[in-house]
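Please review this pair:
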Amino acid sequence: MRLLLDTHTLIWAAKEELRDDAHKVIEEVADSVFVSAATIWEIEIKRALGRLQAPGDMIERVDESGFERLPITLEHAREAGRLPLLHGDPFDRLLVAQARAEGMTLASADPVLRRYDVAVLEVDHR
């Protein structure tokens, strides 16, 4: 299984707040775990707006965790723009597009994402 972490999933993992079942899948079951450039972008925008508290060293934490970096391609952007408007968050729409284009499972607690044609691993935190 190739996993793409949603933004909140990455933050919970960085703070060691993921529930044990989700942590086990990420650490032991997944063949590879990816973090999108869109996720870091979203964290930094929301941090600047005062709407999110997250560790300030997220890139370093991604690299130290062994997670793989996923850049945003033109194809990802096109796919995101073509998705039905089921979700209003452009970052989440981009993550859905990336997961679909790359054949990944999206690790997320957001129930709206399950309405898209994408594999979703439901995660939660403690």
